[in-house]
Each structure stands twice: as C-alpha cells, then as structure tokens.
Amino acid sequence: MLPGVKNQSMKALFCALLVLLLLAACVPQGTVTPTASALTVTDALGRQVTLPAPPQRIVFTGRALFMLADAAYIFPGAAERIVAMASTGQGSANFIALIDPAYAQKAVLDSQAGAEQVAALQPDLVIMKSYLADDIGASIEALGIPVVYLDLETVEQYSRDLMTLGRILGDEARAAEVVAFYRGRVDAIRRATAALERPRVLLLYYNDRDGNVAFNVPPLGWLQTEMVEIAGGEPVWADANPGRGWAQVTLEQIVAWDADQIFVISYFRDPAEVVDALRADPNWQAVRAVRDGALYAFPGDLYSWDQPDPRWILGLTWLAGKIHPQQFADLDMVAEVRVFYQTLYGLDAAFVEQNILPAFRGDMRQGAEP
Question: Which listed residue, 10, 14, 220, 245, has the most CB atoms within 10 A of its CB?
C-alpha cells in the first residue's frame, strides 16, 4: 500500500458516514426511507403509504370492522398477519371466529379503541374505514404508525380496495381473481335488466334498538341504492336523501312514494318477523305494496346481504330475482350461496350446510333446504 493511502481511506470513510448521519437527521420523523423491500400502496384517500417491508403485524380497528375483516379473509394468507381487530360480529354472529382457528389468540379491540391501545400491539400497519381518518386515524398516525384507509362502500370502491388489500397481503393475483368474480356477476345482472321496465322500489331499514321503531332510507351514494339500480329497479327515495347516512322517514312518506315493491332490512332482528308484523298492522294496509303482496324481507345469513360486506353480491343477485322474477326464473340462491363461500373462502359444502344454511333469515329462511 502506498504511503498515506490508509489515512486517506479512513478520512473518506469518516466523511461518508458523517454525510449519511446528516441526511438521516433531515428525514422527518415518521417518514419511511424506501428500501429494496419497501411496499407502497395508495389508499382510499388517495394517499401513498410506504412501508419499509410487507407488514407482518396488521391491526384492523374502528367501527364496521366485520366488513373489513370479511374482505381481508378472502385472501388465504391474511389470518397469519392479522394480530388484532375490533369485534367482527353483528349481533351475536361472528363469521371470522368460525373460519380462523387462531381467532382466540388474536387481541380483540373495542370499536372505540384509542391510539395507545393500538400502539401497544406494535403493529406494522393499521387498516380502518376511511370515514374514521379524522376521528381515530389521525391520533394513530401521530404515533408514527402507518395507516391505510379503505372505503368498501360502492361497487367500484370494492374492486379498488380489494386490489389494495391484495397488494398489502402480497397476493395481487388473488385480488384480481376476486374482482373478476364480482364484476362478472354484476355485469351479467346489468345486461339482464338493461332493457326491462324498472318498477318503483323502496328499500327501508327497520330499527328498534332504542325501543322506538324507525324506518330509514339510505343515501344516494351508498351501496344499497346502487344495488337497487343495478338489479333493475327505480329507487323512489333517491332524491330524498342526498346525505351521508340513513335518513328517517314517516309512514305517510312511505305511502306517498307508492312503491311497487318494498324491501325491509333489519340487522338485529330477523327481517321476516318484521315483515310479518307489518303485514298484520292495520296502519300498513294503506301501503299499496303491502296490499299487493310485494313487501319483502331482505335476506342474510350470519350478516345481512344488503351492506358493504363481501355478501353484498348475494344480496344483489337475490334482489334482481325479486324485482324481475320472470327474467331470473332459474335462479337458485342456495346454489349461489354455496358457490360464494367456496370461491371466496374455500369453504366446502359441509361447512355451508352446518354453519350458513341454518343461519338464513329474511326471505331466505324458508329456502335453506338443498
């Protein structure tokens, strides 16, 4: 080695290390410096979220959690990465507890869990509904924990957010496969109903949880309204609720809308029981759809099929068959249920027979026989 080269090399190394330290000090706290294994996803709010590596400790938190969890478990590897979630039940049912053998080992958070409770789980990533960004998400992000927000509220958002989940879980091929499953069924229903006359349809959410009976209609931009339109109906309430949540309506308004068909949703009571009671109520005899025998109980199994849970595709299929029975005369909803659980969750016929068919409610509760 030539004289002085060793000292020059040491000086160069020291200067390089100093530059790296100065650069690191300039990186804002909470910012991820991309590496070869870094993962970047664009969430429902249009934000690019960069993770240093694919997340291995994922926490799902916030309200309406079962809808997110049911979507995540469509991916076979999801269960191994999810370490905690809020309650995945609606009422007494809990689908995830049925299909995840390790569910009892996962932490179960309160739907209102704060940032400190989430941080104690040491997550690599937190996933929640986008409408919770300001309420809960901001405080979690303030602790330097990455958060990805999903919508899962409309047909198009469902496809987009499934692709986001696929990227997070390292299974974009599975995401594309599931998106194709949904799009194929939606497109087939659109084609079948495109040229048909559109009956006037009213969708009502029945709620008596506070001891007072109330009927509500969904906003124009929600999945429930979109389902009626795709299924070939005209939502009579569309102009009455341009807002962001359920809007309460009176019996007088229901009579005035004069819908050809009315579909009743109930999340915490069998909607078939609700419909039976309405048919027997003298006040509801003023409703033409009741007199015409066109009052229906929106079906479900463990969860109602009207909401933005993966089961919405079953609700759409059933709804199209009810709105246009002649067009879908060969529809077999029990067969559709079996295909759904096999395709999306890999559950065999025995699981469906044991756990799903007995849970049928609404206008499916009489359809559980094979």
Answer: 220
